[in-house]
Amino acid sequence: MEKEIRALKAGKNAVVMAHNYQPMEIQGLADVVGDSLELAVKAKETAADLIVVCGVRFMAETAKILNPDRKVVIPVEDAGCPLADFLTPEMIREARRQHPEAAVVVYVNSTAESKALADITCTSANAVRVVRSLPNDTILFGPDANLAAYVQRELPEKTIVPLPPGGHCYVHTGFTLADVEAARKKGGRIVCHPECPPEIQEQADRIASTGGMVRDAAAGGNEPWWVFTEREMASRLRVLYPGRVFYEKPEAVCADMKKISLEDLRRALESEEHEVVLPGEVMDRARRAIERMIAVGA
Ligand code: 13P
Ligand code: SF4
């Protein structure tokens, strides 16, 4: 199977992009593995004719928006992100009516339609930098209320309005103070994703995006790490830094990230299904917001 996948990739001038939460056998065959920002930037830079995104739908949509003339496929059509579904275009329109002075920042974990209504997008790697770059005092920020709380803590001079107030990722809200207590008993550093609830963020030694975790781990240190995010992240860190100790929470699983199998990837390369198709004017408006984010940097 792996041989077939490599041959198909070469024959079709295809690039396979995988998120850090993808099963390790998919990551092993990917040309690019990274966090949401890294995938977005690499999608913009690629010269491939076919882009296969192994991740969830918003990641494939972002790749398509940045490469409107290329074919972008996602191997499993219904690999979604429940967090993205918290925010609707109507919520953004209504919030704009209520706060005409505010800027709208939409996390990339969102639909293309929501991105199209944003002034700028952000990822967990650059949310603080993006918000700091805006002249507005009030920021409408969605759909992750925990990432919004993190930005608010970092930038107390701004007023961050979460949109909607309860938007969250079930994988990250699964981390509790009992997990912190268990980790502290055993020892090591707690590194958490900003989608974790504020009480976990306050207890963590470091808050980082998945790409930030890869970069921080590269800085060295022998202490074990407690990786408070989707459990595959610890596997990725173990592959990148053999000999280091990374603990995961076995229950922290994103079901949608696990939908793509090697057979699905092989089929996607062969049949070029399922193609991401979005209305042109939605893509044009969303692209402006994403490119504005890329210009701000990580
Ligand atoms: P990152 O951008 O940190 O990879 O996060 C994406 C995501 O879906 C987190 O749950
Ligand atoms: Fe969405 Fe959470 Fe899965 Fe990330 S881990 S893709 S935010 S559901």
Automatic annotation (TrEMBL):
Gene3D superfamilies to which the protein is assigned, alphabetical: NadA-like (3.40.50.10800)
Pathway: Cofactor biosynthesis; NAD(+) biosynthesis; quinolinate from iminoaspartate: step 1/1
One Pfam family, short name: NadA
Keywords for this protein: 4Fe-4S, Iron, Iron-sulfur, Metal-binding, Pyridine nucleotide biosynthesis, Transferase
GO molecular function: 4 iron, 4 sulfur cluster binding; metal ion binding; quinolinate synthetase A activity
GO biological process, one term: 'de novo' NAD+ biosynthetic process from L-aspartate
Record protein name field: Quinolinate synthase
Organism the protein comes from: Methanoculleus sediminis
EC number(s) given by UniProt: 2.5.1.72
Coiled-coil regions listed: none
Cofactor dependency: [4Fe-4S] cluster
InterPro entries per the UniProt record, alphabetical: NadA, NadA_sf
Domain of life: Archaea
Stretches that traverse the bilayer: none
